[in-house]
């Protein structure tokens, strides 16, 4: 139950703190400011803003929002589906370590709070609560991530087990970073792909956010395919992961990249790097001038040329 007297007292303390900040700034405006003046004023302002935070916390407590988690969640729930900048959350939280509370709400309770990691349309520092109720599946995913994180296996093996458990759903950059605990996780994911695990990224599926991965199949591919996968990564890296005809990329333009033979296999073309080029699916279709079907990555579907291309 709300305590009106505590709310009123808190508002008065908050007002006094902000008025004192204004006095500090006005005093600076009356003279030629030195760096020492500015640093002393900044220090005094820091103390006054801390007083404002304490007053704000007193008001939140009076409304029954006694923890930072409660305050942040209540504010996000009042703005379901809307972009909320970090500055607003900092103000609502009343503490400097508010970002940790966001992680706790996601990891421990399954609230679907997304950032630019999950949604490329968001800017860094923007948050969106997508649903008014916690997502039990998301909470279970994070619980699994926590169990795997504490295992003694290598980061690469932990990442594989996590992707296997989620398949065919994807794991985002935050989840994989938490599970694998290594800086080189993108390289380790690539190694798993080269070892025969069919792991898709936004290069293969533009609907996936950069840094997200999905295990498309629980079965490892045969050795011939593994060799093609390794060569495919080499060509993609060589071409800067962008279409060599139009310059578009998955990160910026949400296109799918594929490997194309300059000289078709049906016409004697080889898998030598000089005969391979990265194209988006649109430009790839234009190269083949197909009127039916959909072009695919020619290193991954080895018999495709014989079925669909003219000699």
From TrEMBL:
The keyword Nuclease applies. It comes from the Bacteria. The keyword Coiled coil does not apply. Keywords: Endonuclease, Hydrolase, Nuclease. Pfam families: HNH. Residues 230-285 form the HNH nuclease domain. Transmembrane segments: none annotated. GO terms for molecular function: endonuclease activity. This is 5-methylcytosine-specific restriction endonuclease McrA. It comes from Actinopolymorpha cephalotaxi.
